[in-house]
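Lecture notes, continued. The same structure-token format from the folding unit now serves as the input rather than the output. Read the line below as a description of shape only.
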């Protein structure tokens, strides 16, 4: 498989792991990269610069293949703008292969000087967006690629609410840099579809949560297998922090509180990263929002990252050939 993304990074398959708080650690990151895809190390997992730098170096001990680092520039109780600037500086110093920026554009959140610093260090910059206008801004600011994130995705999709099927081709026809499809991706069929829509790769997180190398309690993995595509909800719309999560007791409570007009300070105790970390560790599926996408409906098993990626690639080839034979 050769696309602009596989050529840019020298990877075998155009399959990238998305950021997941507490889950995108060196073990999972390296497993994805060693399998021919591109792993993800989520900076927000690490409260200090030294711990973050240590995680980058631990990942390099586990793999000699490239991987992405995620820095999410969104409001947070514990992750400050100082943390963000530290993460970015360390990414430049460590010369990581690629940086996935979510939330506020890098030039606005930290300053154009950080884009210059990272590009001089050879770091490829990608911004995750949910609209054409934001993709255009990222290209003008100097980013190397775009993550086109549809409303189906887990995490924090843009409140334009545009689906992947429309967003990917609209962005691909508008910008001149590679596009990665995000949202609704979980198998070879969705990989083939994304390539047909003009993407150069896909990014998925929910599917990688249900792999053997992901360090999350087995109760969570089994829950992902059980859940269907309609069993997610958009929460925190009322406070400008829209997020898609699997429906559970705490998600229903958040939705009820939003309906009553509760604000950020009242909601934050229910959606905190501390709660999420406890859920992943204990396997309690009801104590925190599990930020997963609609692709959860396509999760049927718990393979290794290698099995998953190779299966996706083989299925994508089969689907592309099947469609070719129609014509």
């Amino acid at each position: 498989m050769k696309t602009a993304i596989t050529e840019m990074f020298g990877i075998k398959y155009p399959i990238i792991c998305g950021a997941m708080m507490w889950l995108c650690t060196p073990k999972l990151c390296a497993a994805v990269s060693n399998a021919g895809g591109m792993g993800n190390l989520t900076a927000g997992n690490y409260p200090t610069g030294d711990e973050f730098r240590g995680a980058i170096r631990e990942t390099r001990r586990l793999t000699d293949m490239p991987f992405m680092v995620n820095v999410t520039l969104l409001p947070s109780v514990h992750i400050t703008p100082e943390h963000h600037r530290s993460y970015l500086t360390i990414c430049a110093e460590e010369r990581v292969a690629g940086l996935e920026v979510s939330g506020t554009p890098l030039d606005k959140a930290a300053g154009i000087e950080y884009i210059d610093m990272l590009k001089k260090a050879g770091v490829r910059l990608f911004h995750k967006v949910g609209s054409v206008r934001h993709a255009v801004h990222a290209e003008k600011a100097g980013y190397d690629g775009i993550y086109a994130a549809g409303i189906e995705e887990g995490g924090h999709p843009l409140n334009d609410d545009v689906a992947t099927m429309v967003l990917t081709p609209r962005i691909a026809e508008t910008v001149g840099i590679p596009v990665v499809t995000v949202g609704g991706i979980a198998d070879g069929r969705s990989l083939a579809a994304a390539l047909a829509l003009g993407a150069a790769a896909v990014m998925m997180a929910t599917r990688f949560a249900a792999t053997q190398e992901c360090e999350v309690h087995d109760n969570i993995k089994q829950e992902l297998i059980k859940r269907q595509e309609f069993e997610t909800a958009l929460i925190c719309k009322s406070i400008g922090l829209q997020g898609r999560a699997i429906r559970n007791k705490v998600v229903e409570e958040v939705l009820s509180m939003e309906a009553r007009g509760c604000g950020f300070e009242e909601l934050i105790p229910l959606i905190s990263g501390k709660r999420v970390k406890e859920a992943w560790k204990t396997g309690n599926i009801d104590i925190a929002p599990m930020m997963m996408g609609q692709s959860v409906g396509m999760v049927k098993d718990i393979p290794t990252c290698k099995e998953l990626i190779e299966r996706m690639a083989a299925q994508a080839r089969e689907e592309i050939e099947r469609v070719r034979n129609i014509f």
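Point for the exam: The longest strand covers residues 67-73.
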